[in-house]
Amino acid sequence: MEKEEDKKNPITEFSPNLFWDVTVEDLDMEQHKAFIINRVLDYGQWEDWKIILNHYGLNQIASIARNLRSLFPKSLAFISTVSHIPEDQFRCYKHLQSKNKLWHF
Description:
Elements: H1 33-43, H2 46-56, H3 58-66, H4 73-83, H5 91-98
Helix pairs in contact: 3-4
């Protein structure tokens, strides 16, 4: 049986650029899952996506992403496509639509 200290912490496997503003060792995959998923969707590479997909599963990622206040448009399009959930079902989409446009062309 694998000892707790022998288990590899998935946090250490992420791209170093994801958590530039926090101490990585302080992150917990369960306690900070919304933060981690948001960072991976917006700034992560393909390997980072595979880590969260293996750890959380697509249903949990999509459920958390639906409640995120902000996502980059490309991140929203990606999670919407892979989860088969329309973009307008995401909180960040509704928030984006409510912002005033600076330029009306």
